[in-house]
TrEMBL record:
SMART domains: HTH_LUXR, REC. It comes from Streptomyces salyersiae. The modification 4-aspartylphosphate is found at D55. Pfam families: GerE, Response_reg. It comes from the Bacteria. Gene3D superfamilies: 3.40.50.2300. This is Response regulator transcription factor. InterPro entries: CheY-like_superfamily, NreC/VraR/RcsB-like_REC, Sig_transdc_resp-reg_C-effctor, Sig_transdc_resp-reg_receiver, Tscrpt_reg_LuxR_C, WalR-like. Keywords: DNA-binding, Phosphoprotein, Transcription, Transcription regulation. The lineage of its organism: Bacteria, Bacillati, Actinomycetota, Actinomycetes, Kitasatosporales. Residues 148-213 form the HTH luxR-type domain. Residues 4-121 form the Response regulatory domain. CDD domains: LuxR_C_like, REC_NarL-like.
Length: 226
């Protein structure tokens, strides 16, 4: 299956570089390029790509607004992967909340770029890098001054445990090992958790865990440690 990608970045050199790299892969095809959010939304509506690779900072309609419109208009069929600059963008949290499935640094290596595109295109969230959790935690903490409109009252104790472990970056296999349960049971808990809380993917689960105070920004994490 070929992953159809839309690339949007107002910097022509950056955009051209990403396009050239992606087009070297047999399983990836760049179907369109855009230099701003407005163009990205229009092209996404016309071409229905599997994934939109969007720079957060673009003139006019920025990448966050474009991601929100693209994901909503496609019913989630087009996934959004954001491009950002390390340590500078205060919009990573907002991008994920708007429907993006993760982000890549603009100086990402070729393997990191390909991994990100493939992971998000398969319907997963790109949450593995530690910096992702640190940024989500930071911006979620800024939002906690406004109480969230959801609580864990409807969740079982085990579902809350699973939510916390997702927020710490553990994979399904890691969660299964940590809780001494099967992978299938983990998937069942995650499906029920997502259904109860109206979550689309792990990115939204991480945001929810921080907003509810289940995971505290800056606290020692155990993500990835089986």
């Amino acid at each position: 299956m070929v992953i159809r990608v839309l690339v949007a970045d107002d910097q022509a050199v950056v955009r051209t570089g990403f396009v050239a790299l992606l087009n070297t892969q047999q399983d990836i095809e760049v179907v369109a390029e855009a230099e701003d959010g407005t163009g990205a939304v229009r092209l996404a509506a016309e071409l229905r790509p599997d994934l939109a690779l969007l720079d957060i900072r673009m003139p006019g309609m920025n990448g966050i607004e474009a991601a929100r419109e693209i994901v909503a208009a496609s019913g989630g069929a087009t996934r959004a992967l954001m491009l950002t600059t390390f340590g500078l963008d205060a919009y990573v949290y907002e991008a994920l909340a708007a429907g993006a499935s993760g982000f890549l640094l603009k100086d990402a290596t070729f393997p990191e770029l390909l991994h990100g595109v493939r992971v998000v295109a398969r319907g997963h969230a790109l949450l593995a890098p530690e910096i992702t959790q640190r940024l989500i935690g930071e911006f979620a903490r800024q939002r906690i001054s406004c109480p969230p409109d959801r609580s864990v009252d409807g969740l079982t104790a085990r579902e809350v445990e699973v939510l916390v472990l997702i927020a710490r970056g553990l994979s399904n296999a890691d969660i299964a090992a940590r809780l001494s349960i099967t992978d299938h049971t983990v998937k069942t808990h995650i499906n029920r958790l997502f259904a109860k809380m109206g979550l689309r993917d792990r990115a939204q689960a991480v945001i929810l865990a921080y907003e509810l105070g289940l995971v505290v920004a800056g606290a020692p994490g155990r993500g990835g440690q089986g």
